[in-house]
Give the backbone structure.
Amino acid sequence: MGWSKQRLEEIAKTRLGGAKLIVVANREPYIHRYSDGEIEWIRPAGGLTTALDPVMQACGGTWVAHGSGDADRETVDGTSRVGVPPDDPNYTLRRVWLTKEQEDGYYYGFANSTLWPLCHQVYTRPSFDPAHWEAYREVNELFAAAVLEEARGGPAMVFVQDYHFALLPAILKRERPDLVVAQFWHIPWPHPETFRVCPWAREILNGMLGNDLMSFHIQYHCNNFLETVDRTVECRIDRERFAVERNGQSTSVQPHPISVDPELAIEYLGNDWEKRAGEFRKRHRLGGRPLLVGVDRVDYTKGIPERLRAVDRLLELHPEWKGQFHFLQVGAPSRTHLVAYSDLNDEVEMLVEKINWKHGTRNWKPVIFLNEHHTQKDLFLLYRMAVGCVVSSLHDGMNLVAKEYVSTRDDERGVLVLSEFTGAARELPEALIVNPFNVEQMASAMQTALTMPEEEQRRRMKKMRAQVEDNNIYRWAGMLLSEAGKLVDAEPPKAEVDTAVVDSDSSSEWDLESLIAREVGLSTAGFLSGM
Ligand code: GDG
Protein backbone atom coordinates (compact mmCIF):
# COMPACT_ATOMS: atom_id res chain seq x y z
CA MET A 1 0.00 0.00 0.00
CA GLY A 2 1.49 3.36 -1.01
CA TRP A 3 1.00 6.98 -0.10
CA SER A 4 -1.64 8.91 -2.01
CA LYS A 5 -3.67 12.09 -1.72
CA GLN A 6 -6.51 10.08 -0.20
CA ARG A 7 -4.27 8.48 2.46
CA LEU A 8 -2.98 11.90 3.38
CA GLU A 9 -6.56 13.15 3.74
CA GLU A 10 -7.20 10.29 6.18
CA ILE A 11 -4.07 11.14 8.14
CA ALA A 12 -5.09 14.77 8.33
CA LYS A 13 -8.47 13.74 9.74
CA THR A 14 -7.28 11.09 12.19
CA ARG A 15 -3.93 12.48 13.29
CA LEU A 16 -4.89 16.13 13.59
CA GLY A 17 -7.84 15.13 15.79
CA GLY A 18 -10.00 17.93 14.47
CA ALA A 19 -7.31 20.57 14.98
CA LYS A 20 -7.15 23.17 12.25
CA LEU A 21 -4.15 22.97 9.90
CA ILE A 22 -2.43 26.31 9.30
CA VAL A 23 0.53 26.49 6.92
CA VAL A 24 2.73 29.59 7.07
CA ALA A 25 5.02 30.34 4.16
CA ASN A 26 6.38 33.56 2.72
CA ARG A 27 5.33 32.70 -0.83
CA GLU A 28 1.67 32.32 -1.69
CA PRO A 29 0.60 29.34 -3.79
CA TYR A 30 -1.46 31.55 -6.14
CA ILE A 31 -0.69 35.12 -7.14
CA HIS A 32 -3.26 37.45 -8.70
CA ARG A 33 -1.87 40.04 -11.08
CA TYR A 34 -2.91 42.43 -13.79
CA SER A 35 -2.22 41.54 -17.38
CA ASP A 36 -3.50 43.88 -20.12
CA GLY A 37 -5.93 45.42 -17.64
CA GLU A 38 -7.43 42.02 -16.72
CA ILE A 39 -6.85 40.10 -13.48
CA GLU A 40 -5.19 36.71 -13.97
CA TRP A 41 -3.61 34.24 -11.55
CA ILE A 42 -0.32 32.37 -11.76
CA ARG A 43 1.53 29.78 -9.73
CA PRO A 44 4.96 31.06 -8.71
CA ALA A 45 8.18 29.15 -9.47
CA GLY A 46 9.84 27.42 -6.54
CA GLY A 47 10.06 24.12 -4.76
CA LEU A 48 8.11 25.00 -1.65
CA THR A 49 4.86 26.03 -3.28
CA THR A 50 5.07 23.21 -5.83
CA ALA A 51 5.35 20.69 -3.00
CA LEU A 52 2.82 22.09 -0.54
CA ASP A 53 -0.11 22.97 -2.77
CA PRO A 54 -1.10 19.31 -3.36
CA VAL A 55 -0.80 18.73 0.40
CA MET A 56 -3.18 21.57 1.18
CA GLN A 57 -5.54 20.41 -1.54
CA ALA A 58 -5.65 17.03 0.21
CA CYS A 59 -5.90 18.30 3.81
CA GLY A 60 -7.76 21.61 3.58
CA GLY A 61 -7.08 24.42 6.06
CA THR A 62 -5.48 27.85 5.77
CA TRP A 63 -2.24 28.98 4.11
CA VAL A 64 -0.90 32.27 5.51
CA ALA A 65 1.45 34.09 3.10
CA HIS A 66 2.67 37.45 1.89
CA GLY A 67 0.23 38.95 -0.63
CA SER A 68 2.73 39.90 -3.33
CA GLY A 69 0.68 40.21 -6.55
CA ASP A 70 -0.45 43.61 -7.84
CA ALA A 71 -4.06 42.37 -7.98
CA ASP A 72 -3.95 40.43 -4.69
CA ARG A 73 -5.83 43.08 -2.70
CA GLU A 74 -8.61 43.19 -5.29
CA THR A 75 -9.32 39.46 -5.01
CA VAL A 76 -9.59 38.96 -1.20
CA ASP A 77 -12.57 39.48 1.09
CA GLY A 78 -12.69 41.99 3.98
CA THR A 79 -10.50 39.72 6.14
CA SER A 80 -7.76 39.31 3.50
CA ARG A 81 -8.89 35.78 2.67
CA VAL A 82 -9.51 34.13 -0.70
CA GLY A 83 -10.42 30.55 -1.65
CA VAL A 84 -7.83 28.67 -3.75
CA PRO A 85 -7.11 27.18 -6.26
CA PRO A 86 -8.91 30.12 -7.87
CA ASP A 87 -10.65 27.91 -10.47
CA ASP A 88 -11.86 25.32 -7.94
CA PRO A 89 -11.30 26.48 -4.33
CA ASN A 90 -10.78 23.88 -1.61
CA TYR A 91 -8.62 25.67 0.96
CA THR A 92 -8.16 29.24 2.22
CA LEU A 93 -5.33 31.63 1.44
CA ARG A 94 -4.89 34.37 4.09
CA ARG A 95 -2.76 37.19 2.73
CA VAL A 96 -0.48 39.32 4.92
CA TRP A 97 0.39 42.78 3.58
CA LEU A 98 3.94 44.11 3.83
CA THR A 99 5.27 47.58 3.15
CA LYS A 100 8.07 48.00 0.59
CA GLU A 101 10.51 48.67 3.46
CA GLN A 102 9.43 45.50 5.28
CA GLU A 103 9.77 43.42 2.12
CA ASP A 104 13.20 44.93 1.45
CA GLY A 105 14.56 44.31 4.93
CA TYR A 106 12.90 40.98 5.74
CA TYR A 107 12.70 39.18 2.39
CA TYR A 108 15.48 40.58 0.18
CA GLY A 109 17.58 41.53 3.20
CA PHE A 110 17.71 39.11 6.10
CA ALA A 111 16.11 36.04 4.48
CA ASN A 112 17.82 36.17 1.09
CA SER A 113 21.04 38.12 1.68
CA THR A 114 21.84 36.68 5.12
CA LEU A 115 20.22 33.30 5.82
CA TRP A 116 20.20 31.98 2.23
CA PRO A 117 23.98 32.38 1.63
CA LEU A 118 24.73 31.49 5.28
CA CYS A 119 23.01 28.11 4.94
CA HIS A 120 24.34 27.25 1.45
CA GLN A 121 28.03 26.53 1.11
CA VAL A 122 28.53 28.37 -2.16
CA TYR A 123 31.09 30.97 -1.11
CA THR A 124 28.75 33.96 -1.41
CA ARG A 125 29.36 36.17 1.59
CA PRO A 126 26.22 36.72 3.73
CA SER A 127 25.44 40.32 4.69
CA PHE A 128 24.78 41.12 8.35
CA ASP A 129 22.76 44.33 8.44
CA PRO A 130 21.04 45.29 11.73
CA ALA A 131 18.25 47.07 9.81
CA HIS A 132 17.47 43.85 7.91
CA TRP A 133 17.41 41.93 11.16
CA GLU A 134 14.95 44.46 12.63
CA ALA A 135 12.65 44.11 9.62
CA TYR A 136 12.88 40.31 9.87
CA ARG A 137 11.80 40.42 13.51
CA GLU A 138 8.99 42.82 12.74
CA VAL A 139 7.63 40.67 9.90
CA ASN A 140 7.83 37.49 12.00
CA GLU A 141 5.67 39.29 14.63
CA LEU A 142 3.26 40.39 11.90
CA PHE A 143 2.83 36.86 10.58
CA ALA A 144 2.45 35.55 14.13
CA ALA A 145 -0.47 37.95 14.65
CA ALA A 146 -2.17 36.65 11.49
CA VAL A 147 -1.62 33.01 12.49
CA LEU A 148 -2.98 33.62 16.00
CA GLU A 149 -6.08 35.17 14.49
CA GLU A 150 -6.54 32.13 12.23
CA ALA A 151 -6.03 29.75 15.16
CA ARG A 152 -8.49 31.54 17.43
CA GLY A 153 -11.15 29.46 19.18
CA GLY A 154 -9.78 25.93 19.01
CA PRO A 155 -6.86 23.55 18.74
CA ALA A 156 -4.59 24.05 15.75
CA MET A 157 -1.42 22.71 14.25
CA VAL A 158 0.80 25.32 12.66
CA PHE A 159 3.14 24.07 9.97
CA VAL A 160 5.80 26.74 9.44
CA GLN A 161 7.80 26.78 6.21
CA ASP A 162 11.40 27.70 5.76
CA TYR A 163 14.05 30.19 6.73
CA HIS A 164 11.79 33.25 6.46
CA PHE A 165 10.23 32.42 9.82
CA ALA A 166 12.92 31.30 12.24
CA LEU A 167 11.47 33.50 15.01
CA LEU A 168 7.80 32.68 14.49
CA PRO A 169 7.60 29.35 16.40
CA ALA A 170 8.75 30.83 19.74
CA ILE A 171 6.37 33.80 19.37
CA LEU A 172 3.45 31.45 18.75
CA LYS A 173 4.34 29.25 21.74
CA ARG A 174 4.67 32.29 23.98
CA GLU A 175 1.13 33.40 23.10
CA ARG A 176 -0.53 29.99 22.71
CA PRO A 177 1.42 27.21 24.46
CA ASP A 178 -1.33 24.76 23.43
CA LEU A 179 -0.61 25.13 19.69
CA VAL A 180 1.33 22.33 18.06
CA VAL A 181 4.08 23.94 16.01
CA ALA A 182 6.21 22.16 13.42
CA GLN A 183 8.71 23.71 11.02
CA PHE A 184 10.29 22.44 7.85
CA TRP A 185 13.57 24.02 6.73
CA HIS A 186 13.69 23.67 2.94
CA ILE A 187 17.38 24.60 2.56
CA PRO A 188 20.48 22.96 4.06
CA TRP A 189 21.59 23.57 7.64
CA PRO A 190 25.33 24.29 7.57
CA HIS A 191 28.14 23.19 9.81
CA PRO A 192 28.08 24.90 13.27
CA GLU A 193 31.27 26.87 12.54
CA THR A 194 29.62 28.39 9.48
CA PHE A 195 26.40 29.31 11.26
CA ARG A 196 27.98 30.70 14.40
CA VAL A 197 29.39 33.76 12.60
CA CYS A 198 25.84 35.17 12.44
CA PRO A 199 25.53 37.94 15.08
CA TRP A 200 21.95 36.80 15.80
CA ALA A 201 22.66 33.06 15.85
CA ARG A 202 21.34 32.65 19.40
CA GLU A 203 18.07 34.53 18.75
CA ILE A 204 17.46 32.47 15.59
CA LEU A 205 18.00 29.20 17.43
CA ASN A 206 15.79 30.34 20.33
CA GLY A 207 13.04 31.06 17.83
CA MET A 208 13.37 27.65 16.17
CA LEU A 209 13.39 25.85 19.51
CA GLY A 210 9.80 27.07 19.97
CA ASN A 211 8.88 24.20 17.62
CA ASP A 212 7.61 20.85 18.87
CA LEU A 213 9.06 19.33 15.70
CA MET A 214 11.93 20.78 13.65
CA SER A 215 12.53 19.01 10.38
CA PHE A 216 15.16 19.05 7.60
CA HIS A 217 15.50 17.04 4.38
CA ILE A 218 18.33 14.77 5.48
CA GLN A 219 19.98 13.41 8.62
CA TYR A 220 23.17 15.34 7.91
CA HIS A 221 21.33 18.68 8.24
CA CYS A 222 19.70 17.45 11.49
CA ASN A 223 23.15 16.56 12.85
CA ASN A 224 24.51 19.99 11.91
CA PHE A 225 21.52 21.68 13.57
CA LEU A 226 21.87 19.72 16.81
CA GLU A 227 25.60 20.48 16.92
CA THR A 228 24.91 24.18 16.34
CA VAL A 229 22.34 24.24 19.15
CA ASP A 230 24.70 22.34 21.44
CA ARG A 231 27.49 24.88 20.92
CA THR A 232 25.32 28.01 21.03
CA VAL A 233 22.48 27.80 23.58
CA GLU A 234 22.10 26.32 27.03
CA CYS A 235 20.01 23.19 26.81
CA ARG A 236 20.01 19.44 27.22
CA ILE A 237 20.48 17.38 24.06
CA ASP A 238 18.79 13.99 24.13
CA ARG A 239 20.85 12.14 21.53
CA GLU A 240 18.86 8.94 22.00
CA ARG A 241 15.63 10.65 20.87
CA PHE A 242 17.30 13.33 18.77
CA ALA A 243 15.63 16.13 20.71
CA VAL A 244 16.50 19.38 22.47
CA GLU A 245 15.12 19.90 26.01
CA ARG A 246 14.87 23.41 27.35
CA ASN A 247 12.67 25.27 29.89
CA GLY A 248 10.24 22.37 29.92
CA GLN A 249 9.90 22.47 26.11
CA SER A 250 11.07 19.64 23.92
CA THR A 251 11.95 20.01 20.21
CA SER A 252 12.25 16.81 18.25
CA VAL A 253 14.66 17.07 15.28
CA GLN A 254 13.85 14.75 12.36
CA PRO A 255 14.73 14.25 8.68
CA HIS A 256 11.82 14.12 6.20
CA PRO A 257 12.99 14.23 2.57
CA ILE A 258 10.55 16.25 0.49
CA SER A 259 9.29 15.00 -2.86
CA VAL A 260 6.84 15.50 -5.73
CA ASP A 261 3.40 14.24 -6.74
CA PRO A 262 4.14 11.70 -9.51
CA GLU A 263 0.51 11.85 -10.68
CA LEU A 264 1.05 15.44 -11.80
CA ALA A 265 3.29 14.23 -14.61
CA ILE A 266 0.42 12.26 -16.13
CA GLU A 267 -1.91 15.24 -15.75
CA TYR A 268 0.49 17.83 -17.19
CA LEU A 269 1.65 15.69 -20.12
CA GLY A 270 -1.88 14.72 -21.11
CA ASN A 271 -2.55 13.02 -24.45
CA ASP A 272 -1.23 15.82 -26.57
CA TRP A 273 2.36 16.18 -25.35
CA GLU A 274 3.86 14.84 -28.58
CA LYS A 275 1.95 17.40 -30.61
CA ARG A 276 3.07 20.17 -28.24
CA ALA A 277 6.65 18.87 -28.43
CA GLY A 278 6.55 19.17 -32.23
CA GLU A 279 5.34 22.77 -31.98
CA PHE A 280 8.03 23.59 -29.42
CA ARG A 281 10.75 22.11 -31.65
CA LYS A 282 9.52 24.15 -34.59
CA ARG A 283 9.30 27.38 -32.57
CA HIS A 284 12.89 27.05 -31.34
CA ARG A 285 14.30 25.51 -34.54
CA LEU A 286 15.47 22.35 -32.76
CA GLY A 287 14.91 19.93 -35.66
CA GLY A 288 15.00 16.34 -34.42
CA ARG A 289 18.20 16.85 -32.42
CA PRO A 290 18.56 15.37 -28.91
CA LEU A 291 18.17 17.78 -26.00
CA LEU A 292 19.84 18.10 -22.65
CA VAL A 293 17.82 20.36 -20.34
CA GLY A 294 18.33 22.35 -17.17
CA VAL A 295 15.39 23.90 -15.27
CA ASP A 296 16.05 26.33 -12.43
CA ARG A 297 15.30 29.64 -10.86
CA VAL A 298 18.32 31.76 -11.81
CA ASP A 299 20.08 31.39 -8.46
CA TYR A 300 23.79 31.19 -7.62
CA THR A 301 23.25 27.95 -5.67
CA LYS A 302 22.08 26.08 -8.79
CA GLY A 303 25.43 25.93 -10.62
CA ILE A 304 24.15 27.26 -13.96
CA PRO A 305 27.51 28.78 -15.11
CA GLU A 306 29.22 25.53 -14.08
CA ARG A 307 26.99 23.43 -16.35
CA LEU A 308 27.42 25.87 -19.24
CA ARG A 309 31.20 25.62 -18.91
CA ALA A 310 30.75 21.84 -19.08
CA VAL A 311 28.81 22.22 -22.37
CA ASP A 312 31.72 24.28 -23.70
CA ARG A 313 34.19 21.59 -22.58
CA LEU A 314 32.05 18.82 -24.09
CA LEU A 315 32.17 20.56 -27.47
CA GLU A 316 35.95 21.03 -27.18
CA LEU A 317 36.46 17.36 -26.36
CA HIS A 318 33.84 16.03 -28.79
CA PRO A 319 33.53 18.38 -31.76
CA GLU A 320 31.52 15.64 -33.47
CA TRP A 321 28.54 16.92 -31.43
CA LYS A 322 28.58 20.26 -33.27
CA GLY A 323 25.24 20.72 -34.96
CA GLN A 324 24.01 17.49 -33.37
CA PHE A 325 22.34 18.44 -30.03
CA HIS A 326 21.11 21.38 -27.93
CA PHE A 327 21.50 22.32 -24.30
CA LEU A 328 18.26 24.02 -23.31
CA GLN A 329 18.32 26.01 -20.09
CA VAL A 330 15.10 27.33 -18.55
CA GLY A 331 16.04 30.12 -16.15
CA ALA A 332 13.08 31.58 -14.28
CA PRO A 333 14.06 35.08 -13.09
CA SER A 334 14.27 35.14 -9.30
CA ARG A 335 15.03 37.77 -6.60
CA THR A 336 16.08 40.12 -9.38
CA HIS A 337 16.24 43.16 -7.05
CA LEU A 338 19.38 41.68 -5.49
CA VAL A 339 22.68 42.52 -7.16
CA ALA A 340 24.03 38.98 -6.73
CA TYR A 341 21.04 37.72 -8.76
CA SER A 342 21.06 40.34 -11.52
CA ASP A 343 24.83 39.86 -11.84
CA LEU A 344 24.31 36.12 -12.20
CA ASN A 345 21.67 36.66 -14.87
CA ASP A 346 24.16 38.83 -16.80
CA GLU A 347 26.91 36.25 -16.32
CA VAL A 348 24.70 33.45 -17.67
CA GLU A 349 23.65 35.55 -20.67
CA MET A 350 27.27 36.37 -21.46
CA LEU A 351 28.38 32.75 -21.15
CA VAL A 352 25.59 31.58 -23.46
CA GLU A 353 26.57 34.22 -25.99
CA LYS A 354 30.25 33.23 -25.75
CA ILE A 355 29.63 29.49 -26.14
CA ASN A 356 27.20 30.01 -29.02
CA TRP A 357 29.72 32.30 -30.77
CA LYS A 358 32.59 29.86 -30.23
CA HIS A 359 30.86 26.65 -31.32
CA GLY A 360 27.69 27.71 -33.17
CA THR A 361 27.07 27.98 -36.88
CA ARG A 362 24.69 30.09 -38.94
CA ASN A 363 21.92 27.52 -38.48
CA TRP A 364 22.74 26.00 -35.13
CA LYS A 365 23.20 27.24 -31.56
CA PRO A 366 24.43 24.78 -28.94
CA VAL A 367 22.79 26.60 -26.00
CA ILE A 368 19.25 27.96 -25.83
CA PHE A 369 18.56 30.09 -22.78
CA LEU A 370 14.87 30.70 -22.01
CA ASN A 371 15.15 33.42 -19.38
CA GLU A 372 11.47 33.58 -18.39
CA HIS A 373 8.83 32.08 -16.17
CA HIS A 374 7.18 28.96 -17.64
CA THR A 375 4.06 27.04 -16.71
CA GLN A 376 4.65 23.70 -15.00
CA LYS A 377 2.89 22.08 -17.95
CA ASP A 378 5.59 23.44 -20.30
CA LEU A 379 8.39 22.40 -17.96
CA PHE A 380 7.08 18.85 -17.82
CA LEU A 381 6.92 18.80 -21.62
CA LEU A 382 10.62 19.71 -21.77
CA TYR A 383 11.52 16.98 -19.26
CA ARG A 384 9.67 14.44 -21.38
CA MET A 385 11.36 15.61 -24.60
CA ALA A 386 14.92 15.58 -23.25
CA VAL A 387 17.41 12.72 -23.45
CA GLY A 388 18.97 14.06 -20.26
CA CYS A 389 18.38 16.53 -17.45
CA VAL A 390 21.32 18.26 -15.75
CA VAL A 391 21.04 19.31 -12.09
CA SER A 392 24.36 20.82 -11.05
CA SER A 393 23.54 22.65 -7.79
CA LEU A 394 26.56 23.72 -5.77
CA HIS A 395 24.49 23.04 -2.63
CA ASP A 396 20.77 22.25 -2.45
CA GLY A 397 18.44 21.08 0.33
CA MET A 398 16.70 18.52 -1.89
CA ASN A 399 16.14 19.67 -5.52
CA LEU A 400 12.72 18.86 -6.89
CA VAL A 401 13.65 19.27 -10.55
CA ALA A 402 15.57 15.97 -10.37
CA LYS A 403 12.48 14.17 -9.03
CA GLU A 404 10.13 15.91 -11.48
CA TYR A 405 12.30 14.77 -14.41
CA VAL A 406 12.14 11.16 -13.22
CA SER A 407 8.37 11.40 -12.66
CA THR A 408 7.74 12.31 -16.33
CA ARG A 409 9.68 9.35 -17.76
CA ASP A 410 7.06 6.62 -17.96
CA ASP A 411 8.97 5.47 -21.06
CA GLU A 412 11.82 4.54 -18.65
CA ARG A 413 14.24 6.48 -20.84
CA GLY A 414 16.35 9.53 -20.16
CA VAL A 415 19.43 10.16 -18.04
CA LEU A 416 19.68 12.31 -14.93
CA VAL A 417 22.99 14.06 -14.27
CA LEU A 418 22.86 15.02 -10.58
CA SER A 419 25.13 16.99 -8.29
CA GLU A 420 26.40 15.13 -5.26
CA PHE A 421 25.65 18.24 -3.19
CA THR A 422 21.86 17.89 -3.43
CA GLY A 423 19.66 16.07 -0.92
CA ALA A 424 18.21 14.18 -3.91
CA ALA A 425 21.59 12.50 -4.64
CA ARG A 426 21.10 10.40 -1.49
CA GLU A 427 17.84 8.98 -2.82
CA LEU A 428 18.75 8.67 -6.51
CA PRO A 429 22.14 6.94 -6.70
CA GLU A 430 21.27 5.60 -10.18
CA ALA A 431 21.68 9.11 -11.58
CA LEU A 432 25.10 10.06 -12.98
CA ILE A 433 26.40 11.65 -9.78
CA VAL A 434 28.81 14.55 -10.39
CA ASN A 435 30.79 17.21 -8.59
CA PRO A 436 29.60 20.41 -10.32
CA PHE A 437 32.92 22.12 -9.54
CA ASN A 438 34.68 19.51 -11.69
CA VAL A 439 34.19 20.64 -15.29
CA GLU A 440 35.88 17.59 -16.84
CA GLN A 441 33.66 15.20 -14.91
CA MET A 442 30.53 17.18 -15.83
CA ALA A 443 31.46 17.21 -19.52
CA SER A 444 32.09 13.50 -19.41
CA ALA A 445 28.70 12.89 -17.70
CA MET A 446 26.99 14.87 -20.48
CA GLN A 447 28.79 12.73 -23.06
CA THR A 448 27.62 9.60 -21.23
CA ALA A 449 24.05 10.95 -21.08
CA LEU A 450 24.03 11.58 -24.83
CA THR A 451 25.33 8.11 -25.66
CA MET A 452 23.96 5.81 -22.93
CA PRO A 453 22.50 2.55 -24.37
CA GLU A 454 18.74 2.19 -24.00
CA GLU A 455 18.96 -0.86 -21.74
CA GLU A 456 21.22 0.99 -19.32
CA GLN A 457 18.87 4.00 -19.29
CA ARG A 458 15.95 1.73 -18.55
CA ARG A 459 17.73 -0.08 -15.73
CA ARG A 460 18.59 3.18 -13.97
CA MET A 461 15.32 5.00 -14.65
CA LYS A 462 13.22 2.07 -13.37
CA LYS A 463 14.90 2.23 -9.98
CA MET A 464 14.67 6.01 -9.75
CA ARG A 465 10.98 5.95 -10.69
CA ALA A 466 10.22 3.35 -8.03
CA GLN A 467 11.97 5.54 -5.45
CA VAL A 468 9.99 8.68 -6.42
CA GLU A 469 6.70 6.74 -6.62
CA ASP A 470 7.12 5.32 -3.10
CA ASN A 471 8.62 8.37 -1.45
CA ASN A 472 6.23 10.92 -2.86
CA ILE A 473 5.03 14.25 -1.48
CA TYR A 474 2.11 12.56 0.32
CA ARG A 475 4.50 10.39 2.28
CA TRP A 476 6.52 13.47 3.25
CA ALA A 477 3.46 15.35 4.48
CA GLY A 478 1.84 12.26 6.00
CA MET A 479 4.91 11.39 8.05
CA LEU A 480 5.44 14.96 9.19
CA LEU A 481 1.82 15.53 10.10
CA SER A 482 1.52 12.24 11.95
CA GLU A 483 4.74 12.89 13.91
CA ALA A 484 3.45 16.36 14.85
CA GLY A 485 -0.11 15.07 15.24
CA LYS A 486 0.97 12.80 18.09
CA LEU A 487 1.26 16.03 20.03
CA VAL A 488 -2.22 17.40 19.28
CA ASP A 489 -4.29 17.51 22.42
CA ALA A 490 -7.74 16.95 20.97
CA GLU A 491 -10.21 14.17 20.24
CA PRO A 492 -10.91 13.30 16.60
CA PRO A 493 -14.35 14.49 15.48
CA LYS A 494 -16.16 11.14 15.56
CA ALA A 495 -18.48 11.50 12.59
CA GLU A 496 -15.80 12.76 10.23
CA VAL A 497 -13.33 10.01 11.10
CA ASP A 498 -15.99 7.34 10.75
CA THR A 499 -17.03 8.42 7.28
CA ALA A 500 -13.52 9.12 6.06
CA VAL A 501 -12.06 5.81 7.18
CA VAL A 502 -14.93 3.38 6.94
CA ASP A 503 -16.37 4.62 3.66
CA SER A 504 -13.13 4.39 1.77
CA ASP A 505 -12.01 0.98 2.98
CA SER A 506 -12.93 -0.80 6.18
CA SER A 507 -9.39 -1.98 6.85
CA SER A 508 -7.73 1.31 6.04
CA GLU A 509 -7.34 2.61 9.59
CA TRP A 510 -5.38 -0.51 10.44
CA ASP A 511 -3.45 -0.15 7.18
CA LEU A 512 -2.67 3.44 8.02
CA GLU A 513 -1.35 2.52 11.45
CA SER A 514 0.81 -0.25 10.07
CA LEU A 515 2.03 1.97 7.24
CA ILE A 516 3.17 4.65 9.69
CA ALA A 517 4.59 2.09 12.11
CA ARG A 518 6.57 0.51 9.30
CA GLU A 519 7.87 3.90 8.15
CA VAL A 520 8.84 4.97 11.66
CA GLY A 521 10.54 1.62 12.20
CA LEU A 522 12.47 2.10 8.97
CA SER A 523 13.58 5.63 9.75
CA THR A 524 14.72 4.61 13.24
CA ALA A 525 16.68 1.74 11.76
CA GLY A 526 18.20 4.17 9.23
CA PHE A 527 19.20 6.52 11.99
CA LEU A 528 20.70 3.79 14.17
CA SER A 529 22.77 2.52 11.29
CA GLY A 530 24.11 6.04 10.81
CA MET A 531 22.38 6.83 7.47
C1 GDG B 1 13.83 25.09 -2.19
C2 GDG B 1 15.19 24.43 -1.87
C3 GDG B 1 14.12 22.18 -2.07
C4 GDG B 1 11.34 26.26 -11.97
N1 GDG B 1 11.17 27.17 -12.95
C5 GDG B 1 9.85 27.40 -13.02
C6 GDG B 1 9.20 26.61 -12.07
N2 GDG B 1 10.15 25.91 -11.44
C7 GDG B 1 9.85 24.93 -10.38
C8 GDG B 1 10.41 23.56 -10.67
C9 GDG B 1 10.48 22.98 -9.27
C10 GDG B 1 10.79 24.22 -8.43
O1 GDG B 1 10.46 25.37 -9.21
C11 GDG B 1 12.25 24.32 -8.05
O2 GDG B 1 12.43 23.50 -6.95
P1 GDG B 1 13.86 23.12 -6.39
O3 GDG B 1 13.69 22.09 -5.34
O4 GDG B 1 14.69 22.66 -7.54
O5 GDG B 1 14.52 24.49 -5.85
P2 GDG B 1 14.15 25.78 -4.90
O6 GDG B 1 13.14 26.66 -5.53
O7 GDG B 1 15.46 26.41 -4.59
O8 GDG B 1 13.50 25.16 -3.58
C12 GDG B 1 15.29 23.06 -2.52
C13 GDG B 1 12.80 22.91 -2.25
O9 GDG B 1 12.82 24.22 -1.62
C14 GDG B 1 11.64 22.12 -1.63
O10 GDG B 1 11.89 21.86 -0.29
O11 GDG B 1 14.09 21.01 -2.86
O12 GDG B 1 16.50 22.43 -2.13
O13 GDG B 1 16.26 25.26 -2.33
O14 GDG B 1 9.24 22.49 -8.86
O15 GDG B 1 9.54 22.87 -11.53
N3 GDG B 1 7.87 26.59 -11.88
C15 GDG B 1 7.11 27.39 -12.69
N4 GDG B 1 7.69 28.20 -13.64
C16 GDG B 1 9.05 28.23 -13.85
O16 GDG B 1 9.54 28.94 -14.73
N5 GDG B 1 5.77 27.38 -12.55
